[in-house]
């Protein structure tokens, strides 16, 4: 679906992408990882046809500079930072649905609702006036509503709260069979349960390209019960952010999360290990 050979991109005399070779096949779910300045965002923008380049690059067997409109109709894209869109929410939804053959206003509304965003209550708000999390949810809904063949996301969950992240990951899990994914992230552990391949970049080069087995727990809902040693305010706030509820008003809490988020949950709750009496996940 994407074929790259000896791809080089310079800004001035500085090489940002340096002789990259990469092939993305149908069904690949790639974590594109690496430190700041590794070239991840530049590679994504080049694939999307935003930059001139040297070397060979084909998306759906077409040149993204020459056939950009046709290519972008088959791609869903969520940028790292929300763009300065000068429309209100209703105008943006209508515009996005109108330029995609597979999208519709109803589909975007549904995807947004599944992410916890009620578009109907925000239709008149300027996009720029939305909170960071609301912008991110709307951009994700616009991308998923297109039913893309390739989904490209640059740090897509950066502004989402725990419950929003879980809804977002569940959306990706539901799309896995039909959609090829390229997910850029600083940390592979955040998306490890969604992917089947890791591509690591550094100094504009691909330094690792490895296939991995997908976790069998990724799309499963896991029930969890946590008993605190006492009503620790900060620990309780963390659990409530994850949607947990107190059992009978005591220090015992119940909740659930999808398997794709279990590592993140365990990392979050480990900060309060001294205040946990019992932890059960099933």
Q: What is CATH's topology name of the largest domain? A: Rossmann fold
What low-confidence regions span 5 or more consecutive residues with pLDDT below 50?
none
The CA-CA distance between the termini, in Å, is 39 Å
Highest-level CATH class of the largest domain: Alpha Beta
- What value does the average pLDDT take? 89
The run of helices and strands is EEEHEHEHHHEHEEEEHEEHE
Q: Got a strand count? A: 13
Report on this structure.
- This protein is an alpha/beta fold and 282 residues long.
- It folds into 2 domains: 2-211, P-loop containing nucleotide triphosphate hydrolases (Rossmann fold); 221-281, Alpha-Beta Plaits (2-Layer Sandwich), CATH 3.30.70.
- It has helices at 40-47, 68-72, 89-98, 105-114, 132-145, 162-175, 233-241, 262-270, and strands at 2-11, 14-24, 29-33, 54-59, 75-78, 150-154, 180-185, 197-202, 205-211, 221-228, 245-246, 252-258, 276-281.
- The strands form 3 sheets. Strands 5-6-7-3-8-9 form a 6-stranded mixed beta sheet, sandwiched between helices. Strands 11-12-10-13 form a 4-stranded antiparallel beta sheet. A 3-stranded antiparallel beta sheet has the order 2-1-4, with helices on one face.
- Helix 4 packs across helix 5.
- The longest helix has 14 residues, at 132-145.
- The chain is globular, with a radius of gyration of 20 Å.
- The protein starts with a strand and ends with a strand.
- The model has no long low-confidence stretch (mean pLDDT 89).
Task: List key phrases describing it.
28% helix; six-stranded mixed sheet; 13 strands; Alpha-Beta Plaits; 282 residues; alpha/beta; four-stranded antiparallel sheet; 8 helices; Rossmann fold; globular; 2 domains
């Amino acid at each position: 679906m994407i074929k790259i050979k000896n791809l080089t991109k310079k800004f001035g005399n500085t090489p940002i992408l340096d002789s990259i070779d990469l092939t993305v096949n149908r069904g690949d779910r790639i974590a594109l990882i690496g430190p700041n300045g590794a070239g991840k965002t530049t590679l994504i923008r080049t694939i999307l046809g935003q930059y001139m380049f040297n070397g060979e690059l084909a998306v759906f067997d077409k040149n993204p500079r020459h056939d950009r409109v046709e290519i972008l109709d088959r791609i869903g894209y969520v940028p790292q930072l929300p763009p300065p869109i000068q429309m209100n929410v209703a105008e943006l939804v209508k515009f996005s649905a109108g330029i995609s053959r597979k999208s519709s206003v109803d589909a975007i509304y549904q995807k947004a609702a599944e992410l916890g965003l009620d578009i109907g209550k925000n239709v008149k708000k300027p996009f720029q006036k939305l909170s960071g999390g609301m912008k991110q949810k709307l951009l994700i809904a616009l991308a998923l509503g297109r039913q893309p063949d390739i989904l490209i996301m640059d740090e897509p969950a950066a502004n989402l709260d725990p419950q929003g992240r879980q809804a977002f990951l569940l959306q990706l899990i539901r799309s896995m069979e039909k959609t090829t994914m390229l997910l850029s992230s600083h940390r592979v552990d955040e998306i490890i349960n969604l992917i089947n391949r890791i591509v690591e970049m550094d100094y504009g080069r691909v330094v690792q390209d490895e296939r991995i087995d997908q976790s069998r727990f990724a799309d499963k809902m896991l029930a969890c019960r946590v008993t605190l040693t006492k009503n620790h305010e900060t620990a309780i706030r963390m659990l409530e952010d994850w949607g947990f509820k107190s059992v009978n008003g005591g220090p015992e809490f119940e909740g659930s999360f999808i398997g794709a988020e279990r590592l993140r949950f365990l990392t979050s709750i480990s900060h309060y290990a001294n205040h946990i009496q019992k932890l059960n996940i099933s």
